User: Fold Group 1 glycosyl transferase from Caballeronia choica.
Amino acid sequence: MNWFAEFPGGLDRMVDALVRALPAQGVTVRGLVAGSENVRISTHGTITPFATPDAPILQRISKLRRAADRLRTERVPDVIAAHFALYAAPLFGKFADVPKVIHFHGPWGDETAFGARNRVNAAVKRAIERHTYRRGKLHIVLSQAFAGVLQRYGVDAGTIRIVPGCVDAERFGIDVDRRTARAALGLSQDRPVIFCVRRLVPRMGLEDLIEAMVLVRRAVPEALLAIAGKGPLAAALQALIEQRGLSQHVRLAGFVADEALPLWYRAANLSVVPTVALEGFGLTTIESLAAGTPVLVTPVDGLPEAVVPLDPQLVLEACGARALAAGLADTLLGRRVVPGEAACREYARSHFDLPVIAAKVATVYREAIEAP
Assistant:
């Protein structure tokens, strides 16, 4: 969709991670992405930027097809791995005989429709998705929950393989204690800190999380919630914070640079993922665990699958402000016992580290190549 270094996002972080990790699994990677010429330079030619993300859509598609022609001239690939339906659909005809593996990160059209009034745009996106997904030989999804979602597009369940998200466990597992992390970020050493990383859009449940802090504050008066991210809800969320009298208890941290994220996780007592819909996996869950910080999640889609094997206590009883408040307050007060730092780190490293997940992805690619 975009290159992570230029437009950070969960999908793009995973693609960036796989590009770096797959060669160790015997997979030579070439990629096409919307980005600047810096992408080609920083990846030493591994990734080709076919157009800038803000170019008109028809121009992007035209340049994408020309870039694909050049790559095909160099060498016809053994397998096509598609991560974004809009850019995959125009290319499939050019590689008609090449097996295709579709990485399904989430329902693009449904995400657009959530909380929106104009449904036409979402309908067009769903049509593109349906066209694309049905042409995959195999499909990789992040969770069993999203395997079910993918089947709604008419995809055969027998072609679906579950491979969860990945994290660079070493990068997030920094050897920094909480006091040092807080000092670096200018946070109080004495207050319990809750951290949340989300795009500021309706389906993320951030309104519920802010409302929950009204109740959390009563049980834990010094509690501080920091929400990192940017998006169209920023002004509305800030207004809600002020309306509820939470200016000293909820802080919108804005965009947090990628290199600072491990520090934020380390600085927090716990993190939270309050999503209310369309969460295939929740990459921030394993980022937090890799940093050694327990994470509470709502019982939505793939979120429980990511954390239940570590401890079912990490899954809240329900969505909404009351369930969030009860889980957060009880954890901060020690009434809800969650895994410690060492257990969180080991779980993330053994189940979701880059080499672990890259090996599983490579296995699916080989299956697509070898299957009749």
